[in-house]
Design brief:
This is Trans-aconitate methyltransferase. Keywords: Methyltransferase, Transferase. InterPro entries: SAM-dependent_MTases_sf (IPR029063), TehB-like_dom (IPR015985). GO terms for molecular function: methyltransferase activity. It comes from Nesterenkonia xinjiangensis. This protein has 207 residues and is α/β, with parallel strands linked by helices. The chain has a single domain, classed as Vaccinia Virus protein VP39 (Rossmann fold, 3-Layer(aba) Sandwich), CATH 3.40.50.150. The protein contains 7 helices and 9 strands; from the N terminus they run βαααβαβαββαββαββ. The strands form 2 sheets. The protein has a 7-stranded mixed beta sheet with strand order 4-3-2-5-6-9-8. The chain has a two-stranded parallel sheet with strand order 1-7. The longest helix is centred in the middle third of the chain and has 14 residues. The N and C termini lie far apart (48 Å). The structure holds S-adenosylmethionine. The site of S-adenosylmethionine (SAM) has 19 residues, from helix 1.
């Protein structure tokens, strides 16, 4: 008998190896276009659940001061090593922290690519308040969330400990912010747990 899947049993080292050499996520590139560069330089950014650090590196190269956070020490070592190698480490603060406890510093851009859904609903709701408080007025928020039609949300393929949202719930989370982009993507594709149906929101908003 196999035990049910849980968010805490993810093999993130394997994920970083599998995605090595990837391009920065389109969510980041779209979000950066909304950060008013000239009056905010040097702008500050936070990358929550930074993984291999590809987005943090891209932000450092663009002149941002970046705080990169992940629970996996392998991830934080990767981003720090990559920044040092490229002579960008003076702009980086990298920390091994659990998103359940992190207090994000104030920032002009808060990014979280495919990381927030790995928190449970209570932890994510608490973090969400801290995320909103961290954004400077005019600051930009760019996050992925997973939808209720995702394979990991139900049935034999369910992964416990994660959070999935209906569209109206995503819209409610953005109340008080100006929504710049709210895209919903559904497709069948690979994952670290095998092929699955993805239901993902790509959200960009301004405080
Ligand atoms: C799918 S990866 C995404 C990494 C990167 N942002 C990207 O776009 O490739 C999810 C990341 O979230 C991190 N993560 C998951 N749960 C976490 C938690 N509770 N606290 C901190 N990081 C967490 C994992 O260690 C992993 O690096």
């Amino acid at each position: 008998m196999t035990s049910a899947a849980h968010t805490d049993d993810a093999d993130w080292d394997a994920y970083y190896r599998r995605t090595a050499g990837r391009e920065p996520r389109p969510l980041l590139l779209d979000a950066m276009a909304h950060v008013p560069a000239k009056d905010l330089r040097p702008a500050s950014a936070i990358d929550l659940g930074c993984g291999d650090g590809t987005e943090s590196l891209h932000l450092l190269r663009a002149g941002f001061h970046v705080t990169a956070v992940d629970r996996e020490s392998a991830a934080v070592e990767l981003v720090a090593t990559r920044a040092r190698r490229d002579g960008l480490d003076s702009g980086l603060t990298a920390a091994v922290e659990d998103l359940e406890a992190v207090e994000p510093p104030r920032a002009d851009l808060l990014l979280s690519c495919m990381s927030l859904p790995f928190l449970g609903p209570t932890a994510l709701a608490t973090l969400w308040e801290r995320i909103l408080a961290a954004l400077h007025p005019g600051g930009v928020l760019a996050v992925n969330l997973l939808g209720d039609r995702d394979s990991w949300a139900h049935g034999d393929t369910a992964v416990a400990g994660m959070t999935f949202h209906r569209r109206n719930e995503v819209e409610a989370m953005m109340s008080g912010l100006g929504i710049l982009q709210l895209e919903e993507h559904e497709f069948d594709g690979p994952s670290g747990r095998g092929p699955k149906h993805w239901h993902r929101y790509d959200v960009i908003a301004r405080r």
